[in-house]
Amino acid sequence: MKNSVIIKSFPNGIVLHLDPDIPFDALISDIADKFRESSSFFKDAKMALSIKGRTLTEGQEKEILDAISMNSKLRIICLVGEDDATNQSFVKALQQTDFSGEFSNGSEGQFYRGTLKNGQILETESSIVILGDVYPGSAIISARDIIVLGGLFGEAYAGGNGNEGHYVAALEMSPEKLKIGDFKYKSKDKLSKWSIKPKVQPKIAYVRDKKVVMETLTKELLSELPV
């Protein structure tokens, strides 16, 4: 194994430094060995993961995640860049909600990796984390909660089960339409889809006093949310 796989920590997660030259099959074997040896150290911790050292396809990233999950109890909540302050703050805030196991109201959640483009609609009865962007013209519909680890520029409908105690969160929040339960979000700003790029700032939308409000996502806010 030598030093083909090196694990280092950063705030809220770990960085996996990979040898850029050895065959990928051998690398997967080394990753499995590394996390098997470290399983007692990580236990069942929930962390973000950043992968450095070589360019990977989505399929190869999935193989790495599978190797980690099969050889340890470590729970990877998402892939991020350890130098991205926005991602770090969002991951930290999401960890406070314990979304990797349950969402609000104790619902089970699922992950979708990819970008939703114009005309695409993703609908689910459970809470969902989108590992990508939701572009204008596309829509994500959930009976429960929605988290977008990317930009929400299309439509989002949460709380389709009729319960207003759900939320929509995203790294970049500029939806065409947003609804939680029976309540629609009414933006004060009339922006075109792409003319003005919103400031990258994690935000969360939820129902308060029979209205959908949108606020910057912080640990303090999460502790006070009525969800």
How do the strands and helices of this protein lay out in sequence?
Layout: E1 5-10, E2 13-18, H1 24-37, H2 39-42, E3 46-52, H3 58-71, E4 75-79, H4 85-97, E5 109-113, E6 121-124, E7 127-131, E8 139-142, E9 146-152, E10 155-158, E11 167-173, E12 177-180, E13 183-184, E14 203-208, E15 211-216, H5 219-224
Parallel strand pairs: 2-3, 3-4, 5-7, 6-8, 7-9, 8-10, 9-11, 10-12
Antiparallel strand pairs: 1-2, 11-14, 12-13, 14-15
Helix pairs in contact: 1-3
Overview of the molecule:
The protein is an alpha/beta fold and 227 residues long. The chain contains five helices and 15 strands. It has helices at residues 24-37, 39-42, 58-71, 85-97, 219-224, and strands at 5-10, 13-18, 46-52, 75-79, 109-113, 121-124, 127-131, 139-142, 146-152, 155-158, 167-173, 177-180, 183-184, 203-208, 211-216. It has a six-stranded mixed β-sheet, covered by helices on one side. It has a five-stranded mixed β-sheet with strand order 6-8-10-12-13, with no helix packed on it. Strands 1-2-3-4 form a four-stranded mixed β-sheet. It is elongated. It starts with a strand and ends with a helix. Mean pLDDT is 78; it is low at 96-107 and 190-199.
